[in-house]
Write a structure and sequence with these properties.
Layout: E1 2-11, E2 14-20, H1 28-35, E3 46-52, E4 58-64, E5 69-70, H2 74-88, E6 92-96, E7 102-110, E8 113-119, E9 124-130, E10 139-145, E11 149-153, H3 167-175, E12 185-193, E13 196-203, E14 207-209, H4 213-227, E15 232-237, E16 240-245, E17 254-269
Parallel strand pairs: 2-3, 4-6, 11-12, 13-15
Antiparallel strand pairs: 1-2, 1-17, 3-4, 4-5, 6-7, 7-8, 8-17, 9-10, 10-11, 12-13, 13-14, 15-16, 16-17
């Protein structure tokens, strides 16, 4: 039996555990499935394993609640940045991920929320029509690369449903479709105003989530590229609103949003 220190944090309800890589001992997937369980563990959408390397670099490995490893999480990265502010007083942190380097900066603190701005890389947006078995027509949308894969579509319904399916049901099918060999995150986007979008997220590896950092960026990039939305916009999910700025198609996108440290503790793990 080993005792593992953990931090729990959330960004707009998208919650993560933060564990030191030194405690993983190649058990990343097992730890994720056990500790992220809502009923038998601590509960979270995923675990960010923080590796403090001898040269001073910081690197994150993200494991989803189902034990699968993902390239990165924008919200998870922001949660780690908030913890580095709270625990070490760092005002800025460069965090390596399998989706690329992400630099996070503290903008302000409001109550329990740390407002963090992150460089999210350069979005790659490609219009895509997706054929799913049993649907009468292709799903028109966009494949977006944010260092991890996304598929964005634009339902007209206020409930975000499309093709006679709820967004949750359709998202579950798209996420594992053969068109995406490694699976994909799925965003259902509605344009509320030139500088305001609302969307829902079906996340690869954990299902419907209240928020997503890379999902926010993917949704915004598709709305800007394909629907003419403003390059500075607000993006609202069930968990809250984040701000996106994308000066040009070859520029890095900036994402600003809150993160809150929920608790710290220790967990016994056999």
């Amino acid at each position: 039996m080993s005792r593992i220190p953990f931090v729990k944090a959330h960004a707009c309800g998208n919650d993560f555990l933060i564990l030191d890589e030194a405690f993983a001992h190649s058990r990343h997937a097992i730890l994720a499935r056990k500790l992220c369980s809502r009923n038998t563990g601590i509960g979270a959408d995923g675990i960010e394993f923080l590796d403090r390397r001898p040269n001073g670099e910081l690197f994150l490995r993200l494991f989803n609640a189902d034990g699968s490893e993902a390239e990165l999480s924008g919200n998870g990265t922001r949660c780690v940045a908030a913890w580095l502010v709270a625990g070490e007083g760092r005002q800025e942190a460069a965090l390596g991920t399998h989706g690329g380097l992400r630099t996070c900066r503290l903008i302000r603190k409001e109550g329990a929320d740390y407002w963090i701005e992150c460089n999210m890389g350069v979005p790659q947006v490609t219009a895509k029509a997706l054929d799913l078995p049993g649907l009468e027509s292709p799903i028109q949308g966009a494949a977006v690369n944010m260092g991890n894969p996304h598929f964005v579509l634009f339902p007209e319904s206020e409930t975000f449903s499309s093709h006679n399916l709820t967004w949750q049901a359709l998202g579950a099918r798209i996420a594992v479709d053969a068109a995406f060999p490694k699976g994909t995150n799925v965003e259902f986007v509605r344009l509320l105003a030139p500088s305001h979008i609302a969307f829902r997220i079906y996340e690869r590896g954990c299902g419907p989530t209240t928020s997503s950092g890379t999902g926010t960026c993917a949704a915004a990039a598709a709305a800007i590229t394909l629907r003419g939305s403003a390059r500075r916009l607000s993006a609202t999910t069930q968990g809250g609103t984040q701000q996106v700025s994308w000066p040009g198609n070859s520029s890095e996108m900036l994402l600003t949003g809150p993160a809150e440290i929920i608790c710290t503790g220790e967990v016994d793990f056999a």
